[in-house]
Design a protein that fits this description.
The structure holds 2 protein chains of 2 kinds. In chain A, the strands form 2 sheets. In chain A, strands 2, 4, 5, 9, 10 and 11 form a 6-stranded mixed sheet that branches. Chain A has a 5-stranded antiparallel sheet with strand order 1-3-8-7-6, with no helix packed on it. In chain A, a hairpin with a 7-residue loop joins strand 9 and strand 10. By secondary structure, chain A is an all-beta fold. Chain A has no helices and 11 strands. The model of chain A has no long low-confidence stretch (mean pLDDT 94). Chain B is mainly β. In chain B, the strands form 2 sheets. In chain B, strands 2, 4, 5, 6, 9, 10 and 11 form a 7-stranded mixed sheet that branches. In chain B, strands 1-3-8-7 form a 4-stranded antiparallel sheet, with no helix packed on it. The chains are: A mainly beta, B mainly beta. At the A-B interface, strand 4, strand 5, strand 9 and strand 10 of A face strand 4, strand 5, strand 9 and strand 10 of B.
Chain lengths: 112, 115
Protein backbone atom coordinates (compact mmCIF):
# COMPACT_ATOMS: atom_id res chain seq x y z
CA UNK A 1 0.00 0.00 0.00
CA UNK A 2 1.80 3.08 -1.29
CA UNK A 3 0.86 5.99 0.93
CA UNK A 4 2.87 8.53 -1.09
CA UNK A 5 2.71 8.36 -4.87
CA UNK A 6 4.66 10.07 -7.59
CA UNK A 7 3.03 8.86 -10.75
CA UNK A 8 5.54 10.33 -13.20
CA UNK A 9 8.79 8.32 -13.15
CA UNK A 10 10.50 10.92 -15.30
CA UNK A 11 10.14 14.45 -16.63
CA UNK A 12 12.14 16.38 -19.23
CA UNK A 13 12.09 20.17 -19.33
CA UNK A 14 13.95 22.78 -21.35
CA UNK A 15 16.36 25.02 -19.47
CA UNK A 16 14.67 28.23 -18.34
CA UNK A 17 11.19 26.72 -18.36
CA UNK A 18 9.08 25.65 -15.40
CA UNK A 19 9.37 22.14 -13.96
CA UNK A 20 6.31 20.81 -12.16
CA UNK A 21 6.64 17.65 -10.10
CA UNK A 22 3.54 16.10 -8.61
CA UNK A 23 2.86 14.01 -5.53
CA UNK A 24 -0.30 12.42 -4.11
CA UNK A 25 -0.85 10.92 -0.69
CA UNK A 26 -3.52 8.76 0.82
CA UNK A 27 -3.03 9.02 4.59
CA UNK A 28 -5.11 11.87 6.02
CA UNK A 29 -2.92 11.83 9.16
CA UNK A 30 -0.04 13.33 7.19
CA UNK A 31 0.30 17.00 7.92
CA UNK A 32 3.85 17.89 6.97
CA UNK A 33 5.34 17.40 3.54
CA UNK A 34 8.86 17.63 2.23
CA UNK A 35 10.74 17.49 -1.05
CA UNK A 36 14.20 16.03 -1.39
CA UNK A 37 16.59 16.02 -4.30
CA UNK A 38 18.99 13.17 -4.94
CA UNK A 39 22.00 12.89 -7.19
CA UNK A 40 23.39 9.44 -8.06
CA UNK A 41 25.46 7.80 -5.32
CA UNK A 42 24.56 10.53 -2.81
CA UNK A 43 22.05 10.78 -0.02
CA UNK A 44 18.85 12.82 -0.50
CA UNK A 45 19.19 16.55 0.16
CA UNK A 46 16.34 18.47 1.78
CA UNK A 47 14.86 21.14 -0.52
CA UNK A 48 11.66 22.60 0.84
CA UNK A 49 8.76 21.69 3.09
CA UNK A 50 5.20 22.72 3.82
CA UNK A 51 2.89 22.35 6.76
CA UNK A 52 -0.75 21.44 6.27
CA UNK A 53 -1.82 24.80 7.66
CA UNK A 54 -0.40 26.46 4.55
CA UNK A 55 -1.15 26.01 0.88
CA UNK A 56 2.04 27.48 -0.50
CA UNK A 57 5.67 27.83 0.51
CA UNK A 58 8.35 29.51 -1.54
CA UNK A 59 12.14 29.43 -1.36
CA UNK A 60 13.98 31.04 -4.22
CA UNK A 61 13.29 29.15 -7.42
CA UNK A 62 11.36 26.45 -5.56
CA UNK A 63 7.68 26.66 -4.61
CA UNK A 64 5.59 23.90 -3.09
CA UNK A 65 1.80 23.95 -3.34
CA UNK A 66 -0.47 21.86 -1.15
CA UNK A 67 -4.09 20.97 -1.87
CA UNK A 68 -5.29 19.18 1.24
CA UNK A 69 -8.74 18.36 -0.03
CA UNK A 70 -7.25 16.62 -3.05
CA UNK A 71 -4.36 15.16 -1.02
CA UNK A 72 -2.03 16.52 -3.64
CA UNK A 73 1.14 18.58 -3.63
CA UNK A 74 3.41 19.86 -6.31
CA UNK A 75 6.90 21.30 -6.56
CA UNK A 76 7.50 24.09 -9.06
CA UNK A 77 11.02 24.99 -10.15
CA UNK A 78 11.32 28.27 -12.04
CA UNK A 79 13.48 28.77 -14.00
CA UNK A 80 14.81 25.25 -14.40
CA UNK A 81 18.56 24.85 -14.67
CA UNK A 82 20.67 21.90 -15.88
CA UNK A 83 21.98 21.47 -12.33
CA UNK A 84 18.43 20.68 -11.24
CA UNK A 85 18.64 17.37 -13.08
CA UNK A 86 18.23 14.77 -10.35
CA UNK A 87 15.66 12.46 -8.77
CA UNK A 88 13.09 14.30 -6.65
CA UNK A 89 11.36 12.55 -3.76
CA UNK A 90 8.20 13.67 -2.06
CA UNK A 91 7.89 12.71 1.62
CA UNK A 92 5.18 13.02 4.23
CA UNK A 93 4.96 12.71 7.98
CA UNK A 94 2.46 13.18 10.77
CA UNK A 95 2.58 15.71 13.57
CA UNK A 96 5.01 13.65 15.60
CA UNK A 97 7.61 13.59 12.84
CA UNK A 98 8.60 10.06 13.67
CA UNK A 99 7.95 8.22 10.45
CA UNK A 100 8.68 9.84 7.12
CA UNK A 101 7.12 8.07 4.14
CA UNK A 102 8.70 8.63 0.76
CA UNK A 103 7.35 8.38 -2.75
CA UNK A 104 9.20 6.44 -5.47
CA UNK A 105 10.70 9.57 -7.01
CA UNK A 106 10.58 11.46 -10.28
CA UNK A 107 13.71 11.80 -12.40
CA UNK A 108 13.96 15.35 -13.73
CA UNK A 109 16.13 16.09 -16.74
CA UNK A 110 16.68 19.72 -17.60
CA UNK A 111 17.91 20.02 -21.17
CA UNK A 112 20.26 22.86 -22.12
CA UNK B 1 31.57 19.54 8.25
CA UNK B 2 28.73 18.94 10.70
CA UNK B 3 26.45 16.87 8.48
CA UNK B 4 25.39 13.26 8.94
CA UNK B 5 28.36 10.98 8.41
CA UNK B 6 28.18 7.34 7.33
CA UNK B 7 30.89 4.69 7.15
CA UNK B 8 31.81 2.80 5.07
CA UNK B 9 30.52 4.41 1.90
CA UNK B 10 30.77 1.17 -0.02
CA UNK B 11 30.89 -2.44 1.09
CA UNK B 12 31.09 -5.58 -1.02
CA UNK B 13 30.56 -8.79 0.90
CA UNK B 14 29.98 -12.44 0.22
CA UNK B 15 26.60 -13.94 0.92
CA UNK B 16 26.41 -15.23 4.47
CA UNK B 17 28.87 -12.72 5.92
CA UNK B 18 27.98 -10.11 8.51
CA UNK B 19 28.31 -6.38 7.83
CA UNK B 20 28.07 -3.34 10.07
CA UNK B 21 27.42 0.27 9.12
CA UNK B 22 28.05 3.27 11.32
CA UNK B 23 26.23 6.58 11.39
CA UNK B 24 27.24 9.78 13.17
CA UNK B 25 24.28 12.19 13.24
CA UNK B 26 24.36 15.96 13.27
CA UNK B 27 25.44 17.15 16.72
CA UNK B 28 22.58 17.63 19.16
CA UNK B 29 20.08 15.86 16.94
CA UNK B 30 18.09 13.59 19.20
CA UNK B 31 16.43 11.54 16.51
CA UNK B 32 18.24 9.11 14.25
CA UNK B 33 16.71 7.12 11.42
CA UNK B 34 17.81 4.26 9.19
CA UNK B 35 16.34 3.89 5.73
CA UNK B 36 17.06 1.53 2.84
CA UNK B 37 16.86 2.47 -0.80
CA UNK B 38 16.94 0.21 -3.84
CA UNK B 39 17.10 1.23 -7.48
CA UNK B 40 13.96 2.96 -8.69
CA UNK B 41 12.43 3.19 -5.24
CA UNK B 42 12.19 5.85 -2.62
CA UNK B 43 13.84 5.45 0.79
CA UNK B 44 12.07 2.82 2.91
CA UNK B 45 11.92 3.27 6.67
CA UNK B 46 13.77 0.68 8.73
CA UNK B 47 14.03 1.99 12.27
CA UNK B 48 14.16 5.12 14.39
CA UNK B 49 15.81 6.18 17.66
CA UNK B 50 15.11 9.02 19.99
CA UNK B 51 18.28 9.38 22.01
CA UNK B 52 19.29 5.81 22.86
CA UNK B 53 15.77 4.37 22.72
CA UNK B 54 14.72 2.47 19.60
CA UNK B 55 11.11 3.59 19.29
CA UNK B 56 9.97 2.05 16.05
CA UNK B 57 11.00 -0.79 13.76
CA UNK B 58 9.67 -1.57 10.31
CA UNK B 59 8.46 -5.00 9.30
CA UNK B 60 11.26 -4.79 6.74
CA UNK B 61 13.73 -5.20 9.56
CA UNK B 62 14.03 -8.97 9.77
CA UNK B 63 15.70 -10.85 12.61
CA UNK B 64 18.99 -10.62 10.73
CA UNK B 65 19.02 -6.84 11.14
CA UNK B 66 19.88 -5.10 14.38
CA UNK B 67 20.45 -1.44 15.12
CA UNK B 68 21.86 0.20 18.21
CA UNK B 69 22.49 3.68 19.51
CA UNK B 70 24.14 2.93 22.84
CA UNK B 71 24.93 6.42 24.09
CA UNK B 72 22.39 8.37 22.12
CA UNK B 73 25.04 9.64 19.72
CA UNK B 74 26.32 7.43 16.88
CA UNK B 75 24.40 4.38 15.69
CA UNK B 76 25.30 1.06 14.10
CA UNK B 77 23.24 -1.12 11.77
CA UNK B 78 24.34 -4.75 11.57
CA UNK B 79 23.15 -7.25 9.01
CA UNK B 80 23.88 -10.87 9.82
CA UNK B 81 24.09 -13.69 7.27
CA UNK B 82 23.71 -11.31 4.37
CA UNK B 83 21.59 -12.29 1.37
CA UNK B 84 21.69 -10.94 -2.17
CA UNK B 85 18.38 -9.22 -1.53
CA UNK B 86 20.11 -7.07 1.09
CA UNK B 87 22.01 -5.25 -1.65
CA UNK B 88 20.90 -1.63 -1.39
CA UNK B 89 21.92 1.80 -0.20
CA UNK B 90 21.52 2.16 3.56
CA UNK B 91 20.74 5.73 4.52
CA UNK B 92 21.04 7.31 7.92
CA UNK B 93 19.25 10.54 8.78
CA UNK B 94 18.87 12.70 11.87
CA UNK B 95 16.59 15.43 13.10
CA UNK B 96 16.25 17.65 16.14
CA UNK B 97 13.28 17.42 18.47
CA UNK B 98 11.01 20.42 18.69
CA UNK B 99 9.33 22.83 16.33
CA UNK B 100 11.97 22.26 13.70
CA UNK B 101 11.92 18.51 14.20
CA UNK B 102 9.85 17.76 11.17
CA UNK B 103 12.77 17.73 8.77
CA UNK B 104 15.27 14.93 8.52
CA UNK B 105 18.74 15.33 7.08
CA UNK B 106 20.41 12.43 5.33
CA UNK B 107 23.98 11.26 5.15
CA UNK B 108 25.69 10.19 1.94
CA UNK B 109 24.58 6.59 2.36
CA UNK B 110 26.38 3.26 2.55
CA UNK B 111 26.21 1.08 -0.54
CA UNK B 112 26.03 -2.64 0.15
CA UNK B 113 26.63 -5.22 -2.57
CA UNK B 114 26.19 -8.86 -1.63
CA UNK B 115 27.80 -11.28 -4.09
Amino acid sequence: DQQVKQNSPSLSVQEGRISILNCDYTNSMFDYFLWYKKYPAEGPTFLISISSIKDKNEDGRFTVFLNKSAKHLSLHIVPSQPGDSAVYFCAATDNYGQNFVFGPGTRLSVLP
Amino acid sequence: DTGVSQDPRHKITKRGQNVTFRCDPISEHNRLYWYRQTLGQGPEFLTYFQNEAQLEKSRLLSDRFSAERPKGSFSTLEIQRTEQGDSAMYLCASSPVGSSGNTIYFGEGSWLTVV
